[in-house]
What we know:
Elements: H1 9-46, H2 48-55, H3 60-68, H4 79-109, H5 116-136, E1 138-139, E2 142-143, H6 146-149, H7 153-198
Antiparallel strand pairs: 1-2
Helix pairs in contact: 1-7, 3-7, 4-5
Amino acid sequence: xxxxxxxxxxxVQYTITILIVLFIFxxxxxxxxxxxxxxxxxxxxxxxxxxxxxxxxxxQEVILYYLQCNTKNLTNPLQEYMDKLTDADATSQLYMSKxxxxxxxxxxxxxxxxxxxVGSNVTAAGNDVHTIFVALGxxxxxxxxxxxxQLDCTKVNGKFQAVFNLVCDDLFLxxxxxxxxxxxxxxxxxxxxxxxxxxxx
Length: 201
């Protein structure tokens, strides 16, 4: 014996059914969104360097140098400019040293024109120029530290590897796991709803 469905019970049942169907639709929509993100992440992680090269207008040698950091086969694309700056630092120090010596010699022969104060100003100017080069990371031995030292491939590549591991390991695993949970729960709700319709109360 099954009790007759009253007029009060039917609207409640229809409302619950609509809410369940809507919830199932939302679950499948979120699962599809997660699947798309996981697929995009997986495609990117299959060949990250190739994808970056194809999607950017930066010179390929620059990207390969920083992302692969193969210093045996690739050279720093900025090395030419760094060498010029290194030579400029050495040249400026040489000229400043010679200028300072000239002012010292001149101060003995013509102190009215070449006062020691002028020579001190020249030396101070040379030191200021050298300080700028040092801040850039330039000295006569090459690029070792400073601002330009941060452009070395080992430092950039380390940051790239950290981001790569974060995206391709942690993020991808989180997306895949969340997708599995959503799709399993959505399928479970579909099965439960079908079973409820076959066996109405």
